[in-house]
Structure formats: structure tokens, C-alpha cells
Specification:
α5 runs antiparallel to α8 and α6 packs across α8. The strands form 3 sheets. This protein has a 9-stranded mixed β-sheet. The chain has a 7-stranded antiparallel β-sheet with strand order 8-9-10-7-6-5-11. It has a two-stranded parallel sheet with strand order 4-12. The two termini are 16 Å apart. The chain is globular, with a radius of gyration of 22 Å. With 419 residues, the protein is an alpha/beta fold. It is built from 10 helices and 18 strands. It folds into 2 domains: 290 residues, QueA-like (3-Layer(aba) Sandwich), CATH 3.40.1780; 101 residues, no CATH class.
Length: 419
Amino acid sequence: MKDDMDPKKLLIQDFNYDLPEAKIAKHPKEKRDESKLLIYQNGKIAEDIYLNIDKWLPENSLIIFNNTKVVEARMLFKKATGTTIEIFCLEPGDEYADITTAMLQVKKVQWKCLVGNAKKWKEDILIKNITTRNKQIVLSAKKMHQEQDYFLIEFYWGDDNLSFAEVLHRAGVIPLPPYMHRAAEKNDEERYQTVYARYDGSVAAPTAGLHFTETIFRKLSAKYIGQDFVTLHVGAGTFKPVKSESIESHEMHAEFFEVDITLLKKICNNHYQNIIAVGTTSLRTLESLFWMGLKVYQKMKDIQPADISIEDITIHQWDAYELDATLQLSESLNALISWMNIHQIKKLVAKTQIILAPPYQLKTANILVTNFHQPKSTLLLLVAAVIGNEWKGVYDYALQNNFRFLSYGDGCLFFANQE
């Protein structure tokens, strides 16, 4: 790869734009599917609303959603002095295999957390009283140790019949993005979730899916557009700005994802002409699957599939630019399916640190549904990978034509530029 085409050399300033505060949506539209939709295809821009998205999508496509569920990850502990300590749960401690396992822990659990007002947390343990299942529970939080980017906190509630997911539901609040500059309200409990949210684990919503309704699902089915799901639990790193001058010095956040083997088989066996990813999280998951399959395929030349571990095929930040992408999608996914069968895995659970940035060429989906993203963010890099430098004109059009930006804002339908 030439230096001028090396994503590590990209300057984040080239992915900046002026986003006035007034353009950021602080609350959702009254109806999910009445949000505006910007369509970009073959260099042309059109406008519609999400309710009519089926009209713009090709028949016999496969549309893939992220069914993660936002958890009440923000907990407030009040000290006797009146001081409030905020604990924001990021991801489980390293002893747990995945987020689901940690969420199902009873009695106690350890979690990596951000702590607000940390300097005023001098005592060993903080306590919070909660009520669930008609009984009082005392939830305690204890600092185990501090790392550069987080505190490891042990939560203890002492009930063998109560999962941490249930504890969070009672003790925490929905963690709205910081740029909304407001506290979560009752309405956010419903609207900051997709209608198909299923598996607890995200600290931010997969926002592209917030616009979809049962009405849209029916219209998609009527047009013979297949629907399926992946699960990627969105971490707080999704809001992490790129502070370095070039992308090379930015460490991409790793996120847990889960994919059922039936989806891999569906993609391989049906040969859909178009695969539509709803959200950057769905797209990052799908692209990670391609590279995992490629790693399996390449390693099988030297060792038996049974000797290939999940760690061997985990996707790191720059893998997509350093590996030789010579396989077709079906070849890659079939290698991954074969590996899963040998290891008797029906649901693949892994982590991905993949970063999608120019000049990356998509291997799986070729259509993306997504919201408008923050300046100088890795999500904007992903958009540029899909439609190239045209993102600037698209975003300028949206700013000039009353589109609402970020999590509760409007969205886009992008048809990927082809080489």
C-alpha cells in the first residue's frame, strides 16, 4: 500500500467540519420513522423520510441490524456529605468471557468504570439502596485498582437470584451521549433503544436503528428484503475523539460482538446481490467476520483448524490493511463456518478493534444506513471509507437543508462507491 494511501497517515483535521450546537438533536422526533433520510447514490443526493426507506432499497437484498440493548450504565452514589460520585460502567473485568456472562453474574461482579468526582471518593465502599422484586437491596461499590483509562470496581449486592443486569436496571440511568448536555428523562428509556433491542450490553445506542418501526419491517418484507441481526455491544469508546494529529496514534476501542452461524450460512448460500448494514456497528461486525474467516483460511495452510483458537483470529486495529485480502466473501465465511463447526460453536462471540477508513474497500455490505456523526471521529472515517471524499458535500448539504445531527438526529442511506 502506498504511503499516500496508508490510513495511518490520514490527518484527522481532514475529517473536521463546523457543527453548530443548534444542529444537534437534543430530543427524538415524535415518531421514529418520520425522521428525515438523506439518500446518496452515484453522486446524487435525494431526500425522503425513513418510513419510505423500502422504496430506495433493492429487492432481494439482506438488511442486517444490531440488536444490542442499551443498559442503564450510569450510576449515581450519594455520600453522607451530599457529594455525588458518578460511576459509569464501560465493560466487564477481564475474568469474564463476554458481556453477557458478566451481565448474568449474581451476588457480585467486577466492571471497568469511569468515575466522576473520583478525588472525593476517599472511603473504601460506596453504598446505594435500591428496590427490586418488592424488596430492598443494598448495592455497594468498591475500588479494586486504577488503570490509566478506568477504575476496576467490584459491585456487591449479595443476592444469588439477582443478576447484574437487573441491578443496573434499578440502580442506573440511561447514559445519553455527553453532547446532549441534559439528563436522561423517562422518554429516553424507550426512545434511546431500538424497537428490536434484545441483548443487554451497550452503553450507547446503535443509533441508525432508532428510526426503524414495525411498519418499516412489514414494508421491507413485502419487497422481499430479508432481515437478520448481529449483536455488537457499543462501548463508550464510540464517543472517544481522535486527539492525535494522524490516525496512526489513535487506539481504536475494542467491542464485543456475537453472530449466529445461521447468518453466516445465509450470506453464503443465498448470494444476495446487496447486503445492507444498519449502522456503523453492524458494518464493523460484518467486515470483522470477513477478516476472521481470512485468518482461519490462511492459518489452515499451516495448522489444523482444531488448533486455531479464537485469539488467533481476533481482529486488531490494522489487520484489514496488513492482511492479504485475496479471498471472495463466500470463501472467507465458509472457512469461518468450518472452524466454528469443528469447535462446535453455534454463536461466535469475539472482540473486534477494526477501524474502517479510506482507502478501505467494503468486503461484505455495499449499502449503509447511518446517522450523521461528530467531526473528527472514527465514525466519520468509516463514512469516508464508504462514499469517499464526497462525505463533505453530503454533510454540507445536510447542514444547509435542516437535517438534525447525531444520536437523536436524522440519517443517511449510502450506496458505497465501487472501484
